[in-house]
Every structure is written in C-alpha cells, then in structure tokens.
Amino acid sequence: ASDVYKRQYQRRVRGLQKKDKNRRKRKPKKMGCTASASKEENKINKIINQDISKSRKKMERDVKVLLLGSGESGKSTFFKQMKILSENNKFTESQLLEAGPAIQTNLVSQMKVILSSAEWLNIPLEESNVERARRVQNCDDWSDEIGQDLKVLWKDKGVQQTYSQRNRFQLNDSTDYFFENIDRYFGEFTPTLDDILRVRIRTTGIEEADLVVEKFSFKIIDVGGQRSERRKWIHCFDSVTSIIFFTSIADYDQRLREDETVNRMSESLSLFSGICNIAAFQNIPFILFLNKRDLFEEKIKKVDLKICFDDFEGGTDAAAAMEHIKQKFLTAAGKQKTVYPHYTVAIDTNHVALIFKDIRDDVLKKVLDDYF
C-alpha cells in the first residue's frame, strides 16, 4: 500500500484532532454544554471512522501484487488461475477461441523438438513412422493431416523413449497433456480452461489485470521471466504491495532455454537473492511459491537432488528434498527478510484457490492492518 495514502490519512486525522483540542480549550458558557461536547465528540469520531473506512477501501483497490521468477516457473499459469477465480475478469468465449491456434502450434513445435532430440540421442523411430516424421519436420504449421501424423508419432516407441529423457533437452511441461488430448484439437474446437492453463505462450512485456477474488480487490502484474525480459521489471516496482516469487522445484536437473550451461534452480536462487536485496523492496513482504510440487514428487523418485545440491543426503525422500530447497531459498533471502513460503501446484485451480486465501488473509490483509 502506498505511503501517500497513509500520509494523507494521517494529515486528515491530525486536522480533526486539532479541531477537537481547540474545542476543548473553549470555556463552556452554559449548563448542558457537556451533552453538546459529547455530541460533537461523537460526530468527530464518526468522521474519523468514515475516513479510515474510505482510506482502507482506497488502499485495497491499490493493492498491487507483482509476480516474479525465472522463465517457466509458473507465473503466467498463476496469473491465468487468478482470472479463472475472479468475479470480474474471467476468460471470455473469444479469448478461449484465440488459444486454439496456440495449442496446435505447441503440438507441432514440441513434436519437432522430440524428433530432433531423437536424432541427437541416436534413438531410431519405427520404420513405418519415418515418413510421418519427415512430413512433420518439414511442415510450417498445423493442418488436420499433420495432426494425424502427430497422433501416430506420439505412440511411436522411439518417440516415447526420447520423451522419457526430456530433462536433457527443452520441452514444455504440458507436452504429454496435449498429445493425450489431441483428438479434441482437430477442426473447429473451443479450448477448455485446462487447455488455457497449459498452453505455452511466452510472456513478453508486462501483463496486468484488476481482479476481485472473494470480494478482495487487487491488481496483479505478470512479467516475462527470461533474461531478455528482466530489464522491463523495473517499470513495475513502484508502489508494490507484495511480491510473489515463483520457482519450479521440479527443474533442479534442467538447464535454461536461453543458456544451456546454467542450471535452472541455480539461476532461480541467484535471481531470488538479488531481488530480495533491492532497496525498494526492503519493507515489502515476499511470498515464495515453490511450484510444480506434483512434478517434483515424481522426479525425485528417479533423479537425486544431489545433481543440483551436493550437500543433500535425503535420497528419494520428497519431503526432505523440498525442505532442503526451501531452506536454500530462505538463506538466499537473508535473515532480515520476511518470506512466506508455500509449496504449490499452479496448474490445480482448487489448490490455487486455497493458497490464495492463505496469502490474502496472512499477508495482503496484514499489510493493510499495519496502517490502521
């Protein structure tokens, strides 16, 4: 909440208090003035209470939540979840339809990545699918004919073997979801909300929305997480109420898209530490979303966290591994920084609704209470 509103409110209260003090200094002229003074005092109290109520409502409208984090950490998914949960800014039919071509593009591009990676990994395709693979690699865009090729290729043993090694190349988390539902994407179709949540459209620039969720009003701002987008973040720093920082805990064995020499978890830790130490954010509460818990719990069964943190000794214990990651981030924030950590699954609407209720009650409303 902006200090401007706090100062305006304080000036208003001081003016009323001064008026009350002057009134008390005046000598009473008649009997019965005590009742009059009491009536005047009640009037002043009523004005102050009304002023506080108006100021609080104004500050609630100006609650500004900034979503930060590296690329593919779940910021945009959470942004879309907030729109789904909102009372005033839900996705329209036309917005759902606009996502259709992006879904089809995702299917084509991700199969191309898998086919290229199969060649790199020397994994052969079934002989009957070689021609289909050639058509897909040479196509420019989706067509229903290409869609049929994609459907068959997804079942190919070589494709599945390559997909099982997806941590070695760059592939969207939602790839299997879209291929398992590919029959819905032929011809004219209306994407579902689940489709909207999972389709990857890289965030460039700054996206804002004024939302009301369970009668709580706030502005939410999503910015691109790739390195090339971060220079734009500074334009969003003014009058921020709270920051939600996202990290994908399932990415501990993966590399950045923009720099394949850098581990994603290491990048996220470094970024978080830097943001926590920005002077403009010293008194702003940070909410840490340790995201993609569902994917992490599956991955830790096969891939030891030691690949990222060589001091981890918990083996396949998911709870121990998540706690280890959380402590790494809290240490990176510094002892003086207040951080509210949450393990999240941003793709799950019901889960996000519960998490948002927690942060609204424990953090955002507390910010307002501190002023009143």
Secondary structure: number of strands: 6
| Average pLDDT, all residues | 85
Briefly note the structural class of the backbone.
alpha/beta
Through-space gap between termini = 12 Å
Strand content: 5-15%
- Based on CA atoms alone, the radius of gyration comes out at 27 Å
Helical content (DSSP H or I, runs of 4+): 40-55%
Q: What topology, given as strand order, has the largest sheet?
A: 2-3-1-4-5-6
Total count of helical runs of at least 4 residues: 13
Give a structural overview.
By secondary structure, this protein is an alpha/beta fold. Helices cover 50% and strands 11% of the residues. The protein contains 13 helices and 6 strands. It has helices at residues 3-25, 33-61, 75-85, 93-120, 130-138, 144-154, 157-163, 175-180, 193-198, 264-276, 293-299, 318-333, 349-369; strands at 64-69, 206-213, 216-223, 242-248, 286-291, 339-343. It has a 6-stranded mixed β-sheet with strand order 2-3-1-4-5-6, with helices on both faces. Strand 4, helix 10 and strand 5 form a beta-alpha-beta unit. Helix 4 (93-120) crosses helix 6 and helix 10 packs parallel to helix 12. The longest helix is centred in the N-terminal third of the chain and has 29 residues, at 33-61. The N and C termini lie close together (12 Å). The model is unreliable at 54-61 (pLDDT under 50).
